[in-house]
Amino acid sequence: MRVPGLGRLFRWRYARPVLQVPLLAVSVVMIVHGLLGPSLAPKNLATTLTWLHFRGALVLVLLCAGNFFCLACPFMLVRQTARRIFKPRFNWPRALRNKWISVALFVLILFTYELFDLWSSPWWTAWLIVAYFVSVLVVDGFFKHASFCKFICPIGQFNFVASTLSPFEVKVREQDVCTTCLTKDCIRGRREPVSDLVVIRGCELALFQPRKVGNMDCTFCLDCVHACPHDNIGILSRVPGTELLGDSLRSGIGYFSNRKDLSALAVVFTFGALLNAFGMVSPVYALENWLGEALHVNHEAPVLSIIFVFFLVLEPVLLLGLAAWLSRAWGGIRRAIVPLVVRYTYGLVPLGFGMWLAHYGFHFLTGLYTIIPVTQSAVASLGRAFLGEPHWTLTGLPANAVQVVEIGFLVLGLAGSLAVTHGLAEEDSPEKPLRAFLPWAGVCAVLWVASMWLIFQPMEMRATLMSG
Amino acid sequence: MLMIEHEINPQPARVGPVTVTLTMTGPAARRVAGAHVTVEADMSHAGMSPVFGEAKEIEPGRYQSQLSLGMAGDWVILVHGTLTDGEKVEEQFDVKGVRPN
């Protein structure tokens, strides 16, 4: 916030809408081009921007900065505009104040992505964006605060988990200032002295700044920054991943170790990263065909369901259960198996993030310049080729150079996961930390070897499976 | 009405060089000779390098192009043609399941 230019922008109350408007305009263009433009994915803005540029830029910004995509979220701009007319009346049901729905939606998106080959269909991609806008309007039209962001949005949950590894965080500068603060505007909102009407909103995600720990559930909306009368909240640097260590009480979240839903989210984030990459390499087709023949099934859905259950349920249960059991037996940790698993799943997040970075970074960097000919083509289709004829030969960086970057991301992820799980083992078993750590190091090694194997597999992009 | 039939060799197509042979016929199944034909191959995923080739007329109304497919998976072949009278023709067909080497 003290960076010249940027600091001034973020302090400005209208910083968020200024960042949201361009993304909203891009979203509208993507929807229109997806529905009315070329049906071929590489020539359409909806598919090119969504599956190459948005995903790639998202993970790189999360790695290098923080959750700035939630800050600039165009869905929230539409919601905010709609809320000028329709005021939500209900509170989000208490029983649903957890991540289970969003975990299910996260899995559903990964599943439909493979089943309907969303990446190859501009039409489906456009409808996915439309569905997102409609869902936001419906959920936040009925329910107060940021119910959609906190309890529903699968992209948001992805960002929350990944941003635990970001180098920046929205946090308090001086705790002493908060101790003497009487108004707590960061959570209650800044109010008019006489009418008590909120003029600047407090945190909609129930994160009370003085007791907030890390980036989990923080959309970087900057409401707290603008509401604080003491200018005591900023976007501050920190050591990435530190919030995955320790188990203090976190405002708006509670204890990580008590949150099975958050742990499930971390599992889907980590194992889903490998599964999503597995869907794009040659061996997946051999596996699907083998399963199809073995089960005498011609449809993709049941075969894909089996693969998803194996990779997102059975594999994590076996690997993490075994590691927890060994960790207890060797390290003398006194926690029960399930709480132990819940605690250590957060330690695998760096590995998962490394795989997402490697996968999405590959597509982003090898297809970096494709946005140029696709935009030229879209403009030319309007009858005004003022950007010139499309240069379809423009693609991106060479794949072999990008593979080095991919390996770097995976090594970074492994180092992060080893550091976090070792830190947790030191806390749990001060006398025998190495013995408590070794089983988790084994899990990290298995996932890392699997990730490395994946990036060296020949890519195979089919919009049809089970074709033999 | 103009029709474009296509053949891909080898079958099934594999990563590496493939030969695309096109047969253009007009009304009464008469071959359409003398057209300028180019061929473009795209993957079904955005961000992959397209492959371009010029098709040579190997006999009247039959055009052949060599393309080098760089990745396994589903490809889409786009045919761009200009007939002798200047009329433009476009055709698109799928080459599904190109096998890895």
Short description:
The complex is a heterodimer of chains A (468) and B (101). Helices cover 60% and strands 4% of the residues of chain A.
Please tell me about this protein's structure:
The complex is a heterodimer of chains A (468) and B (101). By secondary structure, chain A is mostly helical. Among the domains of chain A are: 79 residues; 215 residues, no CATH class. Chain A is 60% helix and 4% strand. Chain A has 20 helices and five strands. In chain A, the strands form two sheets. A two-stranded antiparallel sheet of chain A has the order 1-4. A two-stranded antiparallel sheet of chain A has the order 2-3. In chain A, α6 packs parallel to α13 and α13 packs parallel to α20. The radius of gyration of chain A is 23 Å and the shape is globular. The model of chain A has no long low-confidence stretch (mean pLDDT 94). Chain B is an all-beta fold and 101 residues long. Chain B has a seven-stranded antiparallel sheet, with no helix packed on it. Chain B is built from no helices and seven strands. In chain B, a hairpin with a 7-residue loop joins β3 and β4. Chain B has a single domain, classed as Immunoglobulin-like (Sandwich). The model of chain B has no long low-confidence stretch (mean pLDDT 92). In chain B, 35% of the residues are buried. The interface between A and B is medium-sized, with 32 and 22 residues. β5 of chain A pairs parallel with β6 of chain B, so a sheet runs across the interface.
